[in-house]
Amino acid sequence: MGYVTVLALHSLLRWGALGAVIARFARALAARGGAFTALDRGLGFAVIILLDLQLLLGLALYTGLSPAVNAAKMDMGAAMKDPYLRFWMVEHGVAMVLAIGLAHVGNVLVKRAADDARKHKSAAIFTGIVLLLLLAAMPWPFRSVIGRPLMPGF
Fold first, then answer.
1. What is the pLDDT of residue 1?
2. What is the pLDDT along the chain (154 residues), one digit of tens a residue?
3. In this predicted structure, what is the pLDDT of residue 154?
4. Which are the contacts of 25, defined by CB distance < 8 A and separation ≥ 6?
5. 66: phi > 0 → left, psi -120 to 50 → alpha, else beta; which?
6. For residue 22, how many other CB atoms are within 10 A of its CB?
7. How far apart are CA 89 and CA 95, in angstroms?
8. What is the distance of C-alpha 38 from the center of its chain?
9. Backbone dihedral region of 33: left (phi > 0), alpha (psi from -120 to 50 degrees) or beta?
10. Nearest-CA neighbor of 44 among 114, 144, 130?
């Protein structure tokens, strides 16, 4: 697959991943004190699967398909002074890998929690942090230097 195809898939899948994270966070907040159900487990599973797929597509972009990352690799010193190249070379990837790692840690803590209230609390805390990281590291169209259309490649 080429750059445009992988970028389009990565862009499309982000909406599913973001939707799953929002749904899990909202459910964890709404269900506090209630039973931890199959819906809660399913939302946790969906978040992990969608974020892991995003990671795979992102790694394909990062390891050779992305023109911005390839340009940054040519001169890292200059790239760190260029907000556009620095975002794609460092900031986006680091924030997203951190978000995915925290989603996995949160999922494990939810599974290990002793009771349903703790499961919902762990899900809310970790999913809330993941949501903030995702929102902060996305190239929203309103971000002056790094902004991209909501659906590049389509």
1. 78
2. 799 999 999 999 999 999 999 999 999 999 988 999 999 999 999 999 999 999 999 999 999 999 999 999 999 999 999 999 999 999 999 999 999 999 999 999 999 999 999 999 999 999 999 999 999 999 999 999 999 888 876 6
3. 62
4. 123, 124, 127, 128, 131
5. beta
6. 16
7. 11
8. 23
9. left
10. 130
d(CA 99, CA 20): 14
* Sole residue written with tokens 């909406």: 15
Closest CA to 153 of 57, 72, 50, 51: 57
CA–CA separation, 143 and 119 (whole Å): 36
First-to-final CA distance of the chain: 15
Q: What is the pTM of this model?
A: 0.93
Is residue 72 a contact partner of residue 88, using CB atoms and an 8 Å limit? yes
- Cα separation, 153 vs 96, whole angstroms: 21
